[in-house]
Amino acid sequence: MRKAIAAIEKCVVYRRRHRLYNEIYDNLNHHGTQTMISPFSLQETELEESLDKILLPPTDPNAEVTEIPGYKLVYVNGACPRNYRVYKADSMIGVISQHITHWSNEVDSIQYAESVDAAVGLDEFLKVARISKSVNS
pTM of the full predicted structure? Predict the structure, then answer.
């Protein structure tokens, strides 16, 4: 799960940097020279705009939510694969991805046919990880 969250955070940071870079350095004026835009002139809301859309909770009316038995999938980003945060009750348990031919859950190398199977596989993995952690403690 840490790996999946780190991947989401890395993607958000990359998008922010890429967008800021484009606004600062790729702004050519009519003479073909670059015009420097101060990063401080950008609105804070503009910089956080993509983060806000990506991290919508499943209760937000603008969130794209898919309900499957026992779980809620909230669309995060991506075209292929499409990435979804998986919620069980009110807790996020991880991320699953929808590829053209299968689903994956970022914790094993299994290709699942259905989203519910990938979510259950993720949930089972976390249960086993908790049990093995408590046994080893």
Answer: 0.58
